Amino acid sequence: QVQLVESGGGSVQSGGSLRLSCAASGYSYSSWCMAWFRQARGKEREGVALIDDYGNTAYVESVKGRFTISQEDAKKILYLQMNSLKPEDTAMYYCALRTSGYCSWSSSWYNYWGQGTQVTVSS
Question: How confident is the model over 8-18, as pLDDT tens digits?
């Protein structure tokens, strides 16, 4: 059974940093895509960063240069390093796994989701 467990959220002031982690277990797919999504109150869920099994990454424009997605293969942990945080980054952050190497910004393409971790940035 695939499980994704996020951690690392919290409250920071504008300009601060946080590192989110997502521990994955129960899968052994050779081809996959993992992603971080976020959902602010009253807004739709949006993709923030993607990484595939080749190590290719992609970012939504609003976080380019500030966020970095990475994955530790051996421990199956997905990270999202978030620097220069802004109040508009405030949201619940979710990690997601797609059991295919084709990444997508569409949340409906992902097979498994974590429970989310809250990030709050104050001005």
Answer: 999 999 999 99
